[in-house]
Design a protein that fits this description.
2 copies of one chain form a homodimer.
Chain A (H helix, E strand, L loop, with lengths): L4 E6 L3 H12 L3 E7 L10 H4 L10 E2 L2 H8 L3 E4 L5 H13 L3 E4 L7 H4 L1 H14 L2 E4 L10 H7 L4 E12 L5 H6 L6 H10 L8 H12 L5 E10 L4 E2 L4 E2 L4 E12 L2 E11 L10 E9 L2 E6 L4 H11 L1 H6 L3 E3 L14 H6 L9
Parallel strand pairs in A: 1-2, 1-4, 2-3, 4-5, 5-6, 6-15, 7-12
Antiparallel strand pairs in A: 7-13, 8-11, 9-10, 11-12, 13-14
Helix pairs in contact in A: 1-11, 4-6, 7-10
Chain lengths: ~350, ~350
C-alpha cells in the first residue's frame, strides 16, 4: 500500500485540537505537526497542546513556511480563522509549496461570496501548483447548504426553502461566547452589534449564495438581523454566567429574495443551555416545491464535533479532486471513514473488479 | 450559448412518461424521442403516450438502434427495467453509439452488487467510447443510501445505521401493485414470495453495499425478509381493491452484519393507503456513532416523482463526469435545476470570476 498521507494542522485552538485528535484515530493518515498563530505555543509538544496526556514528539511551529519545509505534508487543514482575508496569506504559503488545503474558515465554504478577487487568486495559484483547496464545516458547509441542496435533488421544482438551526452554545469557549454576545446586557449587546464585536454566526451569505448557485437562482437582496435572546433564568457554563435579564445568545435570521419573492429563510437562534427554558435543539429544513417535504434532525448535529469530522472526512475527496479551488458542491460528498483512507482513494466504487 | 442537450427516453411506462414530461419543462435540454419495448406503441406520437393532450411531433421507436441513429441524443435515460441483466443490451447499444446514460433500473445504482461482470463490461465500454453511465432513483439511490452516507460525513465514527421508509403504494400502477403482493391472500402471498412473483422492493443489497463501500465496512452477511401487511379495512385504488384480511402490501426488512454485529438495519413497509389504519408515512434515518442523531422526513419523499426528478437533475453531473461507470457516490450530488441546464455545466462554483 502507498505511503501514509501526511497532514499538517493549522491552529491549536479548540477546533484545531479536535481535528488533530481525530487524525490520530484514523488509519492511512499521519499527523506530522501543527502550526499555531499564538507564538507562546511554538515549540510546545503537540500532544499536550491538544489535550492528550502524552507527548507526540511533534512540534508546534510558529512559522508556517518552516512547518511545511520540515514536516513535508501532502495536505493541510486550516483551523485558524473565519474570514478569507484573514486566512489568505497562510493559503499562499501552503499552495506555493504544493500542499493541498481543507479550510474550516466559514467564508472559505464559498470564498467568492465575500472575496471574489482572493478566491480567484487562490484558484489560479492552486491550478498552477496542481493542488486543490476546499472549505467545509457544519455551518456553513453542511446543515444550511449542502444538506439542503442534496435534498433538492429529489425536486422537479423548488418554490422556497426554510431552514432552522437551534443549537446550544454551552460547549464553546470564550471566542464564540463573546462573538455571540453571551452574558451582555440588552444595551451592550446592541452596542456590540453596531460596533461589529457581536457578529453572531458567520456564513449566511455563503450558504445562501451556494444554494442559489446550485439551483440557478440569482438573489436580489439578502436581509439579515441579529436579536438578543434574553434569559429569564440563570445559565452557567465554565466560561460565562448569564443572570436573568442578560443575553443568553444571538438569534440570527436571514431572508434572500429572488424575482421579488422571499425564496430562502434562515432562522438560527444560538444560546447557552436552551433547554433551561424548554427550547429543544435541532435542525429543520422545509422545502416547498414539487414535492414539498420537511426534514428534522434531533438533536441538532453538534457543531464542533461535526466540523472536525467533516474536515477529516473530506481528505480522500480533496485528494481525488482536480487542481483548483472547489466548493463542497463540486466534490462527491464526504463520508465517515471507518477504513484506511488510502483504500478509499484507491478504487472507484462502481465497476465490478473490486466488488 | 451552446446547443441544447438532446435526451432520449427509454421506456414509456409511468416512470418514462414522468421523466419525459419533466424534460419538457426544463430549459437547455431537449426531448428528442423515446424508445418503447412494447411494440404496439411504436409509431405512436410521444405526446399522447406520456399523457399530454397534444402531439409533440416526436416518435416512439420500437428499435433502439434506429432511435439513436435518427434522434442523435447526447444522453439517454433508461426507464425500462429493474435489473442490470435485463437492461444490459440496451446499455450496449447506447454506449456503442457514444450516448451517455442515466438509468433508473434499481440494480444500476450499484451494478457491481448483482452483476460484477456486466458492471465491468459497462465500465470498459463506456471508457472506450468516452461516455459515462450512472444509476439513480429514490430508493435505491437516495433515501436509504446517498442520504444516509451524506449524513455520515459529520461523523468521527459510526457504530450502526437504522433506516426506515414507510410509504404509500396507492399512486402506483399494476406492475408495482402485483410485485408487492397487494390484494393477495396470506397463502397466495407466501406462494408468490416463494415463486419469486412477490419480490417487494428491489435494492436493499445495492443500498447496503453502497453504504459499506463508502464507509469501509465489509458486510459478512445480509438477512432479508418479506412479510405480508394484512389489512383490517377495505382499501381501494384505481387498480386494486383490498378486502379486510387480504394483503395491503409487503413489509420488507434487511440486516447487514460486519464483524459479527448488525451494523445496518432497514425497515421498509410498503402498502396502499397506510393512513387508513393510522400509519404515518415518512423516512427516518438513525445514526449511532460520534455523534448520534436521527433525521426524519415527513411525509415520505414520494418515490415516483422523486425518481423522475433525480434522473433529470443528474444530467449536468453526468455530463461533467469522466468516462466510465459511476455510482451516485462518485459524483457531486444532483440538485434541483431551476435554470438553463447549460448554465450549470458551464462554470465551476468556487472561483471568483463568475461570482
Amino acid at each position: 500500500m502507498s505511503d501514509l498521507i501526511r497532514v499538517l494542522v493549522l491552529g491549536t485552538g479548540q477546533m484545531g485540537a479536535a481535528i488533530a485528535r481525530l487524525i490520530l484515530q484514523k488509519n492511512g493518515i499521519k499527523l506530522v505537526g501543527a502550526y499555531g498563530r499564538r507564538s507562546h505555543r511554538a515549540g510546545m509538544d503537540l500532544g499536550q497542546a491538544i489535550g492528550l496526556e502524552r507527548d507526540l514528539g511533534l512540534a508546534i511551529f510558529g512559522n508556517l513556511k518552516s512547518a511545511v519545509e520540515q514536516t513535508r505534508p501532502h495536505l493541510a487543514i486550516q483551523a485558524t480563522c473565519s474570514r478569507v482575508e484573514d486566512g489568505f496569506s497562510e493559503l499562499q504559503v501552503l499552495l506555493q509549496q504544493g500542499v493541498e488545503v481543507i479550510s474550516i474558515a466559514e467564508e472559505m465554504v464559498f470564498p467568492a461570496c465575500s472575496s471574489p478577487e482572493l478566491a480567484n487568486e487562490i484558484d489560479q495559484l492552486a491550478r498552477l501548483q496542481g493542488v486543490s483547496v476546499v472549505g467545509t464545516g457544519i455551518n456553513p458547509g453542511f446543515v444550511l447548504d449542502l444538506l439542503v441542496i442534496t435534498l433538492t435533488g429529489v425536486c422537479a421544482h423548488v418554490d422556497s426553502i426554510t431552514a432552522e438551526r437551534v443549537n446550544d452554545l454551552s460547549p464553546y469557549g470564550p471566542t464564540v461566547i463573546s462573538s455571540q454576545g453571551v452574558g451582555l446586557t440588552l444595551q451592550t449587546f446592541a452596542e456590540g452589534v453596531a460596533a461589529g464585536r457581536v457578529v453572531g454566526h458567520y456564513g449566511f451569505p455563503e450558504s445562501i449564495h451556494l444554494i442559489c448557485k446550485a439551483l440557478g437562482w440569482e438573489p436580489e437582496k439578502i436581509e439579515q438581523s441579529r436579536e438578543p435572546i434574553i434569559s429569564s433564568v440563570r445559565r452557567e457554563t465554565p466560561f460565562i454566567t448569564v443572570e436573568p435579564g442578560q443575553v443568553a445568545g444571538c438569534h440570527q435570521r436571514a431572508v434572500a429574495y429572488y424575482q421579488g419573492r422571499p425564496v430562502i429563510n434562515f432562522d438560527h437562534p444560538q444560546q447557552v443551555f436552551p433547554e433551561l427554558e424548554g427550547v429543544e435543539t435541532g435542525d429543520t429544513i422545509e422545502i416547498r416545491g414539487i414535492p414539498s417535504f420537511s426534514v428534522r434532525c434531533r438533536p441538532e448535529i453538534p457543531g464542533g464535533q461535526a466540523t472536525a469530522a467533516l474536515a477529516v472526512n473530506t481528505i480522500p475527496r480533496l485528494l481525488k479532486a482536480p487542481p483548483g479551488l472547489h466548493t463542497v458542491l463540486d466534490l462527491p460528498v464526504a463520508t465517515a471513514m471507518l477504513a484506511d483512507v488510502r483504500e478509499l482513494l484507491r478504487v472507484p466504487l462502481a465497476s465490478g473488479d473490486h466488488g
